[in-house]
């Protein structure tokens, strides 16, 4: 369970006693730049709430608030065998998921493939060819010699897509450093299916989903208090269940106002108009030098893809200032390479348990060829704390905004992603910020805060892009079979030859 306060490493006190004046001054300046106080957190959250509503309006706003056509939470009794494909950002994962008779249970087999870096900026044909090859390999390996009917597939495509149907999705724009020509503005399903057909892979795409929607549904499958699904990983985003009556932009669909529909917020785009977020000069550079300047303002301050780069930009900037003595007379050419440090480099620094920051000293030497002094190490450590804390506190604004919009006084929020799972203190710092934003006085059971369960808790999620994708495929087939075909394009295809496989 997540506590309410950041837990400090008991073994390291840290001391700025030996830090010379110029560096102390810089530390103070960085603290001012990167610290987001309670009042600002609250102001950001309030603006966030109005932007969520704006995204659901007919006019739209900068947060896309994409309708997903996932129209209910699972009952826990979904059954069958499904394939799931996860195209997240770093890896490609293919899974076979068995949903057995037992409520809330699942079995999973999976294979992971590293996404080659050059694929991210290659051609659309290369991308779909690679994805189809991975699926083919998986099926040949796990079903060698079997005669297969079409297997239903939940495809987790974790980028903003406009979906008029659940088996359709027009990529709005690439995020997370992807830049493949000829995909934006088009439905990604036909070229994907064509690549499968070319290879004779017996698969029927049943649902195209976002990782956050998968996380929401998978988490709710095992814990029905889970009301929001979040990803804090390479990118940052959330999904939650909304009522159709709250979505003016869906009015033309004539859905009953209390019909549930999962919304993929794509909140990475929050504040693209730069009204409220406390952006630093470093955030401005990250944006300017990214493949899509002006997009994903919130994400670029929080997500794993950018944390190492923010850190690197600060250090390079300090080195260039004549009045700051940092890395003087040392070769910093390795540090000057954009995106040379990832979030795990920062995690390791925050995890360094030694008073003299020996591990940090060693990683600077090994990775960057820079021999650091004790005062420099103190600044480096403080900088990672500031960047990591800002990310966690800003993330909490999004969570609080959804809870406030929905009127959830208590809720579980399922979270996944490398930053949530691996970045030191991210959970506790997020919990602390939620407490400040939502003004809790008591915990969930009316006891003093910090003793038990916080009213809103961000907890580790179930596997959204595996189990979640399978569940959404199952829910879609089930509702189509029951005659509810709203938001489904290929109704016949889904009814024919796409019965969920029987569990083995
Ligand atoms: C980016 C994508 C979004 C995804 C998130 C987490 O923000 O645009 O679709 O959910 O990363 O992977």
Automatic annotation (TrEMBL):
GO cellular component, one term: mitochondrion
Keyword ATP-binding belongs to the record: yes
Pathway stated in the Swiss-Prot or TrEMBL entry: Carbohydrate degradation; glycolysis; D-glyceraldehyde 3-phosphate and glycerone phosphate from D-glucose: step 1/4; Carbohydrate metabolism; hexose metabolism
Top EC class of this enzyme: transferase
Keyword Protein transport (UniProt): no
One GO-annotated biological process of the protein: glucose metabolic process
Pfam families linked: Hexokinase_1 (PF00349), Hexokinase_2 (PF03727)
CDD domains recorded: ASKHA_NBD_HK1-2_fungi
Boundaries of every Hexokinase N-terminal domain copy: 27-221
Ranges for domain Hexokinase C-terminal: 227-475
GO molecular function: ATP binding; D-glucose binding; fructokinase activity; glucokinase activity; mannokinase activity
InterPro entries reported in the protein's UniProt record: ATPase_NBD, Hexokinase, Hexokinase_BS, Hexokinase_C, Hexokinase_N
EC number: 2.7.1.-
Key words, A-Z: ATP-binding, Glycolysis, Kinase, Nucleotide-binding, Transferase
Catalytic activity: D-fructose + ATP = D-fructose 6-phosphate + ADP + H(+); a D-hexose + ATP = a D-hexose 6-phosphate + ADP + H(+)
Assigned protein family: Belongs to the hexokinase family.
Protein name as annotated: Phosphotransferase
Native species: Saxophila tyrrhenica
